[in-house]
Amino acid sequence: MMQLNRGVWRELLFSSFSQHVRFTHQLLHFRRLTFELKQIHMKAVLTGLILLCVHTGAVALDSRTSLQWSDQLDTLPAPLPAPDYSALPELSAQSVLVYDQASGQPLLAKNATLQTPIASITKLMTAMLVMDAGQPLDEKITITSADRDTLKGTGSRLAIGSSYTRGQLLHLALIASDNRAAHALGRTYPGGLDRFVATMNRMAHALGMNDTVYVEPTGLSSNNRSTALDLAKLADYAYQNYPEIRHISSTGHYTLGTQRVVVKKKRNKAKVYYRQVAFNNTNRLTRMDDWHIGLSKTGFINEAGHCLVMQAQVAQRNVIIVLLDAMGTNRRAGDATRIKAWLESGSTSRSADNRYTPASRT
């Protein structure tokens, strides 16, 4: 009985121990599960906090960004007044620039940076270099066969073998746009014609005329090229620094005085006359009372069309007017007249697409 009781007891003890072990395992599993649940909960909480912080930071960042853009919008310059395009003059010239010397800004621009042949506008640079060289203006220069126009075959009233002072040739190059006169001035420059042309290009570079190239001093070559913008710089510089060129180029008439003139017709004996030899300025506006012109130069070859560079006082403004590649002499003068009327009408809202800096001073 006692042995049975012991066996039962052992069985009971073993069963109780097994139940305890199972309970312990279950308890440990429950604790492990609780711990994992807590970890998951903590991760969820942390994730929520991180997302909340990120959202809050994003909102703050967005608000700062909005502030910055608002500040930038507040500091933008007020838009320029819209040009009154209905009041703009109809112009024949393909390239145009009207340049206000006081402000250094364009009042009107049309293809102002288009490079194009410039014809006898070239002679303005030629005259500047002659003045810079400081050679005597009363020195006699003889016109030679080297001064003939071999590019276009144009004529001249300056006979081969005739002599004129450097000052006279300067007048004839600027007023009458005489090609032999301009070539003779370049040919007799210190160092000769090659050095003269090289100096023309160095001068252009010094003035910031970055789209300008010269190959000879007359403008007969279509390879003498520039832009309306560059020529405005040139004219402005010439006006400011060369009073002799201002005076000569704005004069309506010029005379060489009494000259010996040989007239020879075919199959007839040559006849010699002594008479006044006079020249008109190729810019007829210099002879008009309603224009106040301070500097002027015209030009024409087929490739360049009719060109004009001019300083004038219009409507109490000192302006440079550049017209390149107009359809004819009358159209060129008509363009200038229409620009003058436009300036006087007060319709000069900024009509240029680009802003330019004043001409360089060197």
Description:
The chain is of the alpha+beta class and 362 residues long. It folds into two domains: 1-73; 87-345, DD-peptidase/beta-lactamase superfamily (Beta-lactamase, 3-Layer(aba) Sandwich), CATH 3.40.710.10. The chain is 44% helix and 20% strand. Helix 3 (166-175) packs across helix 4. The termini are far apart.
Describe the SSE topology.
Layout: H1 2-75, E1 95-100, E2 105-110, E3 116-117, H2 122-133, E4 140-142, E5 163-165, H3 166-175, H4 179-187, H5 192-206, E6 225-226, H6 228-241, H7 243-249, E7 253-263, E8 271-280, E9 293-301, E10 305-314, E11 317-326, H8 329-345
Antiparallel strand pairs: 1-2, 1-11, 3-6, 4-5, 7-8, 9-10, 10-11
Helix pairs in contact: 3-4
SS-based class: alpha+beta
CATH class identity of the largest domain: Alpha Beta
Largest sheet: 5 strands, antiparallel
| C-alpha geometry | globular
Strand content: 15-25%
CATH architecture of the largest domain: 3-Layer(aba) Sandwich
Round the Cα radius of gyration to an integer and report it: 44 Å
Strand order of the largest sheet: 2-1-11-10-9
| Mean pLDDT value | 80
**CATH fourth-tier homologous superfamily of the largest domain:** DD-peptidase/beta-lactamase superfamily
| Low-confidence runs of at least 5 consecutive residues | 1-5, 40-83, 353-362
Indicate the CATH topology of the largest domain.
Beta-lactamase
- Give the terminus-to-terminus CA distance: 135 Å
* SSE order: HEEEHEEHHHEHHEEEEEH
Number of helices: 8
Q: Into which percent range does the helicity of residues fall? A: 40-55%
Number of strands: 11
Number of domains: 2
